[in-house]
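Lecture 7 notes: from sequence to structure.
We start with the chain below.
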Amino acid sequence: MRAEAGTPTPYSLLAFREAVPMAMKIYTNRLSQPSRALLILCDLSKIPYEEKRIILAGEEHLEPWFLKLNPAHQVPVIEDDAFVLAESEAIVKYLIAKHEIEDHWYPADLQQRAKIDQFLSWQHVNLRKKLMAIYREEVLEVRKGNKVDKEKVEEGLEQLEDTLDFLEIHFLGKKKYLCGEEISVADLFAICEIMQMTACGKDVLKDHRKLKQWTDRVRQATNPVFDEVHAECFKSRKDESAAPEKK
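Predicted structure tokens for the same chain:
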């Protein structure tokens, strides 16, 4: 029996992954926001796959074998038999076209689909760009042994506020989800970007009540998959908190 739209049926992820022959490989890193969005969609839609985790910190993505898959040296990448595809949005659209999944994720209705595409185009140079600027400074640069540039962080947070205002007013508005009354891939991409801030220990939604309610709604609709896929991201925050502060 199919689950009601937006309400995934609970099941054992491990049992599901082991029970189905997996031709498709997904090369991921769970600290990668698009990787997490892709994994959540695949698990909730019961798309069979074998996850191959790439160690970005060890520069595995720069090794010759991986560069043959994706010369842009980024995750996620899929290998579906002999077909290789990079870029998370392209992968998601390919899998939706190939597999029978619930319509609400990426509706067949032309105008509903266009609204999702509009958000996906917007978020690259707005939500994702602003959040990554902060994450890069507070997490990635620190891991390289560099000191946090507090001025850059403060400037980034100010710019992010404008972006979150736009997201809350113009995309979410009075709707349950970003592009309508049902959850879509737009919500998955957006929430995975925002959750990256957990690694920085920042509650960027503290002044955005509607967005906070939306994140709770998305998380509830996608659990237990959501928490399982984000476990490494949550752990990263604990590890960063335990690390001595750089002087």
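Points to note: The longest helix spans residues 150-172. The radius of gyration is 18 Å.
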